[in-house]
Amino acid sequence: MRTHRIVDPRGVDLQYWADTLCLDLDEYAVIPQLYSESEWQNWAAGLIGINGISQLNPPSPYQFDDWQEWAYRFYQVLN
Fold it and tell me: Residue 70: how many CB atoms within 10 A of its CB?
């Protein structure tokens, strides 16, 4: 499985990063939009469960309190 270049989450806000992922990862599936930033962990859990992404062993968002910490680890896995 090849990795896919995604936007570095450092220095951007959550909504921008999530919206960008919808476009960057469209080859895997239709990525749902994040509508509530407080729900980022549930949104991210759906994201890591997508076939093709899950095989890359991304980190669980439930192990992180801060979205940027999780997002940067996710970014490292996919890049």
Answer: 22
Structure tokens at 64: 């992180």
| Owner of token pair 């309190």 | 65
pTM of the model: 0.90
What element of type H or E holds 8? none
**Domain ranges in the chain?**
14-78
Sign of the Cα torsion 73, 54, 66, 40 reads positive
Q: Quote the DSSP letter at residue 12.
A: S
> Radius of gyration (Cα) for the chain, nearest Å?
11
Binned at pLDDT 50, 70 and 90, residue 16 comes out as very high
pLDDT band at residue 4 under the 50/70/90 scheme: low
